[in-house]
Design goal:
single chain, alpha/beta, Rossmann fold, 2 domains, five-stranded mixed sheet, two-stranded antiparallel sheet, 9 strands
């Protein structure tokens, strides 16, 4: 059975069973509990939806994901680094189902999906929505009024006709009336190979000296460092180090639209 069909069945189960919604919401994604419910009702489910040999594991995750996407508003997550404070507004993906040895089918969060459409499908209509997500969060954050400027991370792919991080940051700047500075932080070398490097020491070697600031315009001031995705945090840590050491910035705050599940989600899941 395809993942799409499993998701459709999960949606129907969730929409007709408020008890399932409450169980998922109140038990913090307890896989084992939901799996036991699925196992107990698998024959009924297969009969009702006229399917054979449904994968109970995939159905369990599909039910959990359906509830999370439609009934639970996830809180922004704290991201750790050498900055004063940092947050990711949402997860990038909710789950990944293995299709074969080299392929996974990802279930994106709403923000993750919009970001994917913008970055890899040139859907520029997503810029407004993504900016609004940042603005909504920032308007609830007490540090917003103290920010002297928004500093977006420099792009890795210079071939894009529209740079997603810059475009979103521009809209955020306009809506919050905080200056956007794309001229202050400069990338001095190519770091595209980072995506294929897992070793922390090797990643740091690539990043050493990769960024510079032009002057001391934000000396003793507070800035917001903005990026689209928090993965390992190594790039944001290197930029923050540069802002502190070379720019004499007082405080760096970090906000990203999404973060990968590998960085902090596992501790919240019960198996």
């Amino acid at each position: 059975m395809s993942t799409t069909n499993i998701n459709e069945i999960a949606s129907k189960i969730v929409n007709k069973n408020a008890k399932i919604v409450d169980i998922v919401k109140n038990n913090k994604r307890n896989y084992r509990l939901i799996r036991n419910i699925v196992n107990s009702n698998i024959n009924l489910i297969q009969t009702k939806y006229k399917v054979n040999n449904i994968d109970a594991h995939q159905l369990t995750w599909a039910i959990i994901n359906c509830v999370e996407n439609n009934y639970i508003e996830r809180e922004p997550q704290v991201i750790q680094g050498n900055w004063k404070a940092g947050w990711a507004i949402d997860l990038h993906t909710i789950s990944s189902v293995k299709i074969d040895d080299s392929h996974f089918e990802n279930t994106y969060s709403d923000i993750g999906k919009a970001l994917n459409l913008l970055k890899y499908h040139d859907d520029f209509s997503q810029i407004e929505y993504l900016a609004d997500c940042v603005v909504k969060f920032m308007r609830t954050n007490k540090i917003t009024s103290k920010i002297a400027a928004i500093v977006p991370t420099p792009p890795s792919n210079l071939d894009r006709k529209v740079q997603p991080v810059y475009a979103i940051a521009q809209k955020v700047s306009e809506k919050l009336n905080i200056p956007l500075d794309t001229d202050y932080l400069v990338k001095t070398k190519n770091t595209s190979e980072l995506k294929t490097i897992e070793d922390k020491i090797q990643r740091q070697e690539v990043l050493n000296g990769a960024f510079q600031v032009k002057d001391y315009r934000y000396q003793n001031k507070k800035v917001l460092l903005f990026d689209d995705l928090f993965r390992s945090g190594s790039t944001l840590n290197e930029i923050t180090r540069t802002l502190y050491q070379s720019g004499n910035v007082k405080n760096v705050y970090v906000v990203t639209l999404t973060k990968t599940r590998a960085n902090g989600l596992a501790k919240n899941i019960s198996y």
